[in-house]
């Protein structure tokens, strides 16, 4: 390679690396205090145990997590009439046996259902936070459906604005974090990243997913933390975030003590289920 060619290559490499470092940049200035968040292991969907009639995302699962001293990762969707509730799936069937979706059902319809045939019902976000009452940190995973991220964020804030405990919000969808950066910049926010997450089959969706999972939207959302799966914690963009910006990480879903030790040794926060650390 000629000297001119080498200089061009070197300039391209430096420019690409600089652009990459800028794209994955988390919040750098005005960071919130994460010390309380980082003290805990987190029970994903609460410390649930169907064998003991404790379904996921139930008040019983929240209570069990608190009794064992675990933080909570809870899933949030909104009902047709605009009430944030704790539920992971878009479809209701797996947990309730009923057809339909959370977003197309009213709160009254949802409250008539039982979780996995137990006495537990789908709680509202307000009911769950009233129960937790600041005893442990809560991380709320916001699930966007049909582009409803603005309505979802706004309705969740109606509840969070009066909650006095430690909490954070997270989502796969960068638009959620962008909204919180603009509207509630003081809230702790966490970007989720997983190469198995897919918003659609079109080429536009594929490109969107690539940008999201590679954390290329961070410069717009400025997350305080990154959440990744066990299988995707070896991620070039996440590695760059760690090296340059020392970004804290959640790693999910830990299901064995071997995985638990791996995550803790790596300095990340454990998000577990189907086990007791």
Structure description:
This protein is α/β, with parallel strands linked by helices and 277 residues long. The chain has one domain: Phosphatidylinositol (PI) phosphodiesterase (TIM Barrel). Helices cover 39% and strands 16% of the residues. It contains 12 helices and 9 strands. The radius of gyration is 20 Å and the shape is globular. The mean pLDDT is 93.
Summarize this structure briefly.
By secondary structure, the chain is α/β, with parallel strands linked by helices.
Protein traits:
alpha/beta; 277 residues; TIM Barrel; 9 strands; 12 helices
Instruction: Identify the CATH architecture.
Output: Alpha-Beta Barrel
How many helices in DSSP terms? 12
Kindly, what is the distance between the CA atoms of the first and last residues, rounded to a whole number of angstroms? Answer: 55 Å
Q: Report the sheet with the most strands, covering strand number, pairing sense and barrel closure.
A: 8 strands, parallel, barrel
Poorly predicted residue ranges: none
How many independent structural domains?
1
Strand content: 15-25%
What's the CATH H-level superfamily name? Phosphatidylinositol (PI) phosphodiesterase
Which structural class is indicated by helix and strand composition? alpha/beta
List the helices and strands and how they pair.
Elements: H1 3-23, H2 35-38, E1 42-44, H3 59-67, E2 71-78, E3 84-86, H4 93-96, H5 107-111, H6 125-132, E4 138-142, H7 149-160, E5 167-171, H8 174-183, E6 188-193, H9 203-213, H10 218-221, E7 225-229, H11 236-245, E8 249-254, H12 257-265, E9 269-272
Parallel strand pairs: 1-2, 1-9, 2-4, 4-5, 5-6, 6-7, 7-8, 8-9
Antiparallel strand pairs: 2-3
